[in-house]
Design goal:
Elements: H1 2-6, E1 26-28, E2 35-37, E3 44-45, E4 57-60, E5 70-74, E6 80-83, E7 86-89, E8 93-97, E9 100-105, E10 108-113, E11 129-132, E12 141-145, E13 152-154, E14 183-189, E15 198-204
Subcellular location: Secreted
Family: Belongs to the CCN family.
Function: May play an important role in modulating bone turnover. Promotes the adhesion of osteoblast cells and inhibits the binding of fibrinogen to integrin receptors. In addition, inhibits osteocalcin production.
């Protein structure tokens, strides 16, 4: 009965399919007629505007009032995380890039950097340190550039080990750079192998950003 009320035959669809946001594939609407952008986790849905089933999402009407649409949620009501348009299940550990590793938990996620963010100060045996991207390696590395011959060498090979005890020093972690979503916190510390001051950075998230309201296209 619902299908007969909302689905018209023959189908009349736009000539050009809609351009979908990242992570939202083109799917057939609830009538199996026109291609639309699949609704993502937390977005509104109804009979016509279907959720992304490839991510395990269904239209959840449990919290909707009578006559209104639902919200895209996991079929088993399991909480998850959406990062860069991809949905991860609760408890899943994932890497959005080779530089960070994240853990999805209770609808949010926390991440730790996999690359060390240190500051290399000039020393007599490395007067011109420079951090560069190395082909084939994820994390940038410090190299030493000689002033006259411009020779590059691995900074770690020439860093002398400390012979005297290190007096630990460091600042508190700064506030998160973002009020919602993924941000960064930084501090300066010498708690490392060479007792060298370095700027350390870690990912933080105070709370998830609210989902943007999606406008329903007009149904002809």
């Amino acid at each position: 009965q619902v299908c007969a009320q909302l689905c018209r035959r023959p189908c009349y669809c736009p000539w050009v399919p809609p351009r979908c946001p990242r992570g939202s594939p083109l799917v057939l609407d609830g009538c199996g007629c026109c291609k639309i952008c699949a609704r993502r986790l937390g977005e509104p849905c109804d009979f016509l505007h279907v959720c992304d089933q490839s991510q395990g999402l269904v239209c959840d009407y449990s919290s909707a009032s009578a006559g209104t649409g639902g919200t895209c949620n996991f079929e088993d009501d399991e909480e998850g995380c959406e990062v860069n348009g991809r949905v991860y299940r609760d408890g899943e550990v994932f890497q959005p890039s080779c530089k960070i590793q994240c853990h999805c938990l209770d609808g949010g996620f926390t991440c730790i950097p996999l690359c060390q963010e240190d500051v290399r100060l000039p020393t007599p045996d490395c007067p011109y340190p420079r951090r560069v991207e190395i082909p084939g390696k994820c994390c940038p590395e410090w190299i030493c550039e000689a002033q006259d011959q411009h020779l590059l060498r691995d900074a770690r090979a020439v860093s002398p080990l400390l012979s005297s005890p290190c007096q630990e020093w460091g600042t508190d972690w700064s506030a998160c750079s973002a009020t919602c979503g993924l941000g960064f916190a930084t501090r300066v510390s010498n708690q490392n192998r060479y007792c060298r001051l370095e700027t350390q950075r870690r990912l933080c998230m105070l709370r998830p950003c609210p989902a943007l309201p999606a406008a329903f296209p007009a149904v002809s």
